[in-house]
Amino acid sequence: MTACATVDNKHFLRLMPTILPIERKKSMSDFAKKIQLQKVLAFGALVILYLFFAVMGRNFTNTATTLNILAQSYFVGFLAMGVTFVIITGGIDLSIGASMMCSTLVGGLLLRNYGWPLWLCLVVVVAFGTLVGLCNGLLVTRLKLPPFIATLGMMLVTLGFGAIITNSTTMRYPTNEGWFRSVFLRTDNNSPTGAIWMLAFFILAFILLNKTKIGRYIFAIGSNEEAVRLSGVKTGRWKCAAYVICGFFTGLGAIFYAAMYTTMIPNTGNGIELQAIAAVVIGGTSLAGGVGSLSGTIIGVFIMSVLRSGLVSMSLPAPYQTFFTGIVVIGAVLLDIYRTKKANEVKRVK
Amino acid sequence: MKKVLATALAVILTVGLFSGCMTQDEDTMYISVISKGFQHQFWQTVKAGSDAAAEDLGVRIFFTGPEGESAIADQINMIDAELAKGPDAIALAALDTEAVLSQLQDAYNRNIPVIGFDSGVPDAPAGQIAANASTDNEAAAALAAEKLFEVLEDKLTAATADSPVVLAVLSQDATSASVTGRTRGFVEKMAELAAGVNDSVAIRGGLSSINKGDANAAVIVEVVVGATPDITDMTNAANGLLNTENLASVFCSNEGAVTGLLAAINAGASVPDGVLLVGFDAGAAQKDAVRSGLFMGAITQDPFQIGYQAVALAVKAARGEAVADIDTGAKWYDAGNMDEPSIAILLYD
User: Fold this and answer.
1) Longest dimension (CA), chain A
2) Each residue of B260-295: b (16+ CB within 10 Å) or e?
3) Which of A202, B21, B26, B100 lies 20 to 30 Å from A29 when distance is taken between CA atoms?
4) B7 touching A, CB under 8 A?
5) Does residue B277 belong to any structural domain of this protein?
6) Judgement on whether residues B102 and B174 belong to the same structural domain of the protein
7) Span B321-329, mean pLDDT?
8) Where is the domain boundary, B258, B285, B300?
9) Are residues B44 and B146 in the same domain?
């Protein structure tokens, strides 16, 4: 599960023989070790947090809490997996929260006001998320907007669009009736079906990031975009692909958000993107790009859910959850900075 | 290595921090109270009531609530988390009934009684809400009618068909259960009291289901409903109302109606001499109007009792005793008593 997610060395070296000195091979493996360490630390933190709450919390280890931790991880998990791709390219996607809400609203509108069958609405939900991702990608690669600005703009666009098309009314997905929640959240006898989906798409994303050309270029662009471009690679196309993948996962996340909450209110969903980005950072993906792993991201997602459920199980009011999530994010970024600095030192000494 | 040490240290410190403030006692009854909000002073007073009940009854409660009325997802997370903790009962003021249907079903399946408080869980499936602790809106508005009648009794006795007296109600809408309940409560109580001193009493206006009596009665209780609940339409309705001939009093059945009336007055509409104004609920503008004497007084709900009775009902239900809806009562306040501590705590801004 801890497959290291740096650039495939062989491929990378063939790609840019003149730019990277041979010593890089050594420093890469040091670099890899650092990432492993961060992931081990993150996983250790997850275990420690869980044990801590198991002792201190009320009924923290029972089935219901475990199901809650899982259920709260689904939509954030999909968003976080998607945005991992973008962050590895050195970009950022701030639109995922609003875009996810907007996708659920589009689907809900078709379901309620136009009577489309649910499965078709869900296809549209995923397609809409992907479309927003494509817009982000084109804004960043074709129009050369900084990712922060482009996706901030799309965040506002989707936030507004969702409210406009629904006329600011609430959209509802099926709650107790039908197959929707048993397929995407959990069955009546509490089998967490959402976890199966998340595992399946984790494997898909993992292969995409670590075993395919797209993944290798995404890492390479994040490490040194200019070098990749000078080697004759059309970087724009691959970077755009990262945003489209992110959009696709946002659309999927929207389905699981709808299954979890069923009542969709326009103009909400702000801040969900930050939960996802925080999880990615906690998992050891560097905001500077070029370094990252999906397994780390998933660990980050679970750290956040365990923290949230755990603080509630200790009967601490909501503001404490926000507070401690902030502490964890700051801690994770500090680790990231420390690690990057260390890695650079290694290079200089050589 | 330094990092590992730092992390370990941080964890130990955090553990220490929490272990200090945690007392785990599995035998004490545990009640989850999930409100519709938290920061608003209204909810702070509800919380004070819940805490007092927990103290009196020797149970442990956890009072929580989302940040605002649109934070449905947050509230669902809170209900899920509380259900997972296996409470002995839950007190709930749901933001949206449909959104919590599966949580209600879950609680029902696991025999965790759910008590509604404040607005409760309207239209919940039968049997899934054990009881409600909420304001009886009709009784609360009837209190306003009694207070007005005390002052207006002579005027009503003297009224004739040639010089009638109009007692108006300004109502923000004719559909919401709480607002129509108040309007009905006021109108029916006032008509009943007036009938005791004058033979000719009529009810007319926007709530047609309760209209009765002759067009040229001596005492007329008139209901005015805004065209829409918007502030502009409420202001228009209030303007028209203040121009009504023979007007003696105006009762505003919620804060929205008060806001409309005050907006009309601020925009230049004059209150005819001797016309008494009565409000409902609190809010900064209304409190100022009462304090300055522009309003004769107003009715406030009792959020402290709402919180107290919610926990009391939850404890009873958890013990398996029979529970029934409780009216948490309402209080009259005016310039004279609004600064008394027992009243001031009920008046939110």
Assistant:
1) 66
2) bbbbbbeeebebeeebbbbbbbbbebbbebbeeebb
3) A202
4) yes
5) yes
6) no
7) 90
8) B300
9) no
Q: Residue B25's pLDDT is what?
A: 53
> What domain range is B252 assigned to?
137-300
Angle A318-A319-A322 from CA coordinates, rounded to 5°: 95
Residue ranges of chain A with per-residue pLDDT less than 50? 1-26, 350
pLDDT in tens, B233-281: 889 999 988 988 899 999 998 888 998 999 999 888 888 888 999 999 8
Residue B77 to residue A308, Cβ atoms within 8 A: yes
- CB contacts under 8 A, B 87-146 vs A, are 96, 98-99, 101-102, 105
pLDDT band at B310 (very low <50, low <70, confident <90, very high): very high
* A303 contact residues in B (CB cutoff 8 A): none
pTM strictly above 0.80 = no
Q: Are residues B204 and B317 in the same domain?
A: no
| B29 near A CB under 8 A | no
Q: Are residues B286 and B141 in the same domain?
A: yes
Min Cα separation A245/chain B (Å)? 26
- State whether the Cα torsion A14-A15-A19-A23 is positive or negative: negative
Indicate whether B18 belongs to any domain.
no
Contact A268 B98 (CB under 8 A): no
* Residues of B in Cβ contact (< 8 Å) with A338: 3
Order of all β-strands in the sheet with B330-333 = B201-205, B219-225, B165-171, B247-252, B276-280, B297-301, B330-333
**Mean pLDDT confidence for B9-32:** 61
> Using the beta-carbon criterion (under 8 Å), do A308 and B18 form an inter-chain contact?
no
- Measured between beta carbons, the chain A residues lying within 8 angstroms of B18 are 56, 314
